[in-house]
Amino acid sequence: MDICRKNSTSSSGPEENASFDVHPGSDIVIDMINPPKRQDDYPDRHIDCQEAMEPGFQAIVDCMLEAGWHRGETFQALRQLVAAAKMAQQENARLEAELAILRAQARAGREPK
User: Fold this and answer.
1) Residues in the chain, pLDDT under 50
2) Fewer CB near the terminus (10 Å): N or C of the chain?
3) What is the rounded distance in angstroms from the CA atom of residue 58 to the CA atom of residue 43?
């Protein structure tokens, strides 16, 4: 099964943004990912997570190389995506905390600072 097929429905000229036929929730991706051994925390859970992620990670790298990207730029892009996701998660947590404070102030009848 070729998961690196480019979507043939888009053709917007030389700056074509090719997407792939693999979408979140597709059987291809789900079949690659093993669930945790247990739902609670356990020793080596992070290692199990890495092992579960490995086939999908390798598929992404392989597809990028097949599409013509170099390994170094692929890894750099992945690092940047991880960093951006981490920053977004931290900002979301900060905003959620700020909203919780504002909601508590509103319930207490106090004006926000």
Assistant:
1) 8-21, 25
2) C
3) 25
